[in-house]
Automatic annotation (TrEMBL):
GO terms for molecular function: 8-oxo-7,8-dihydrodeoxyguanosine triphosphate pyrophosphatase activity; 8-oxo-7,8-dihydroguanosine triphosphate pyrophosphatase activity; 8-oxo-dGDP phosphatase activity; 8-oxo-GDP phosphatase activity; metal ion binding. It is an enzyme of class 3 (hydrolase). The gene is mutT. Its cofactor is Mg(2+). Belongs to the Nudix hydrolase family. It comes from Dialister hominis. InterPro entries: MutT-like, Nudix_hydrolase, NUDIX_hydrolase-like_dom_sf, NUDIX_hydrolase_dom. The lineage of its organism: Bacteria, Bacillati, Bacillota, Negativicutes, Veillonellales. Keywords: DNA damage, DNA repair, DNA replication, Hydrolase, Magnesium, Metal-binding, Mutator protein. This is 8-oxo-dGTP diphosphatase.
Length: 133
């Protein structure tokens, strides 16, 4: 099975004391209507950090400060294996504009489970729950 290398950002209000994080709703394709962390595929020659900065610039029109790696999700979809580096991040410059997402929500620790996450993301939600205040 082919492996797709993806990066995603868990954009929080604060890197040391996160109380809310940003979730976005897919506006197109086979996962339309499901919720995820903004990001996308790593391109040739890019480091994961470079890829996540570029993806967030493209999708949300902001510059981010990239924080710690929360984990690398490994998940088997029917047609491919997903390997996704998930970074905690914070907006450093700019105002969020949804260039691709259908919608976005800031979720708190207690509302983390109120959106329909993509199947692969379930595994990291528990970890995010642990680090949120
Ligand atoms: N961005 C993102 N992708 C995720 C998450 N969870 C998850 O299973 N995925 C999957 C869905 C897609 O198959 C893949 C990401 O690919 P993508 O289509 O967003 O990548 P891209 O922006 O480079 O898009 P494209 O140019 O190929 O359309 O990872 C997540 O939380 N965020």
């Amino acid at each position: 099975m082919k492996t797709i290398r993806v990066v995603a950002a868990v954009i929080a209000d604060d890197l040391d004391h996160p109380t809310k994080i940003l979730a976005t709703e897919r506006g197109y394709g086979e996962f339309k209507g499901q919720w995820e962390f903004p990001g996308g595929k790593i391109e040739k020659g890019e480091t994961p950090e470079e890829a996540i900065r570029r993806e967030i610039r493209e999708e949300l029109e902001v510059e981010i400060e990239v924080g710690p790696l929360l984990g690398t999700i490994e998940y088997d979809y029917p047609n491919f294996h997903l390997s996704m580096d998930t970074f905690l991040a914070k907006v450093r410059e700019g105002t969020i504009v949804l260039k691709e997402a259908e919608a976005a929500k800031w979720l708190t620790k207690s509302s983390l489970d109120t959106v329909g996450w993509l199947p692969a993301d379930q595994t990291i939600i528990k970890k995010i729950h642990e680090i949120m205040e």
